[in-house]
Specification:
The protein has helices at residues 10-21, 37-41, 54-60, 77-90, 111-125, 146-152, 169-181, 200-211, 222-229, 236-250, 260-265, 272-278, 280-283; strands spanning 2-4, 27-30, 45-48, 66-69, 95-99, 129-134, 154-157, 163-164, 188-191, 198-199, 216-219. By secondary structure, the chain is α/β, with parallel strands linked by helices.
Length: 284
């Protein structure tokens, strides 16, 4: 049995879909049973409880051999994920799969990557088999700019000329499903990227090609953008942590892509052009 956390979110939801497509039924920990209805329709078992509540987690872990630890970024994330790891070990789980990020490394200096790295290290010290899935910028983040692209044929983000190898959440889910349901992934870290290393000016070119009209990227002033973000992320810690990630991208971002996704799935990752075509109704 596999236990999924975070399955009502974008990436966890795609993982649940990919597992169901493979004929693999998992148990899903959800706080709200109503939000678990779509997952139940896929054939997954619903366990109601909060990832921060040890009692409900222990109950959900009964008979589980593998767990996906995927929690939202927050000030409590590190402590909660460490607790999940400890409870998994106590309950006889054999393999922990952690959704981390490419920015998570020993030299990380910003809060979210530092938290991911601390949890990775805790899992590695646990004695359990482990796998780290480490994506970077999600293409789905660009859906927040759909209104501006539709109305103004432009989008504005605070990334300057920074580069990233953005990835579709559907692909992240497919890679994670392989790690959970496949064989030979124990004690390995996978840095999964999209097929192209792009600036956001180049991303605008991909939008233009997919939509058949000129789309422009306008670099936003970081301070102004963060003021706007107060409406989206009212929690100050979370907002500041995200802002620091944005600054890292603006100051350079990634400098490489990897073949890890192809090695895991046997196919190329979805391109940004294809992503835009798949969601064209939102941008036109």
């Amino acid at each position: 049995m596999i236990l999924l956390t975070g399955a009502t979110g974008k990436t966890g939801g795609e993982t649940a879909k990919a597992l169901a497509a493979r004929g693999v039924k998992a148990r899903v920990l959800v706080r709200d049973p109503a939000k678990g209805a779509a997952l139940q329709a896929l054939g997954h078992e619903i366990a109601v409880g909060d990832a921060s509540d040890a009692a409900s987690v222990k109950k959900a872990l009964a008979g589980v051999e593998r767990i996906l630890i995927l929690l939202p970024n927050s000030q409590q994330q590190e402590a909660m994920e460490k607790q999940l790891t400890d409870l998994a070990k106590q309950s006889g789980v054999k393999h922990v799969v952690k959704m981390s990020s490419m920015e998570a490394m020993a030299s990380a200096t910003t809060p979210i990557p530092m938290a991911h790295w601390a949890v990775e290290e805790h899992i590695r010290r646990s004695g359990l088999a482990w796998t780290m899935v480490k994506p970077n910028f999600f293409m789905q983040n660009l859906l927040g700019s759909a209104g501006s692209i539709k109305a103004n044929k432009s989008f504005s983000l605070p990334f300057g000329n920074g580069r990233t190898a953005m990835m579709d959440a559907r692909d992240i889910g497919a890679a994670t499903a392989e790690v959970l349901a496949g064989k030979g992934h124990e004690n390995r870290s996978y840095e999964i990227t999209g097929p192209e290393l792009l600036t956001f000016h180049e991303a605008a070119e991909r939008f233009s090609a997919a939509l058949g009209t000129k789309i422009t990227y306008v670099p936003a002033d970081p301070a102004v953008f963060m003021e706007i973000m107060k409406k989206v992320l009212p929690n100050e810690w979370h907002r500041n942590a995200v802002g620091q990630l944005f600054r890292e991208i603006a100051e350079g971002g990634l400098n490489h892509t990897t073949q890890d996704f192809r090695k895991l799935t046997g196919r190329d990752p979805i391109s940004l052009t294809q992503f835009v075509r798949d969601h064209a109704q939102l941008f036109q």
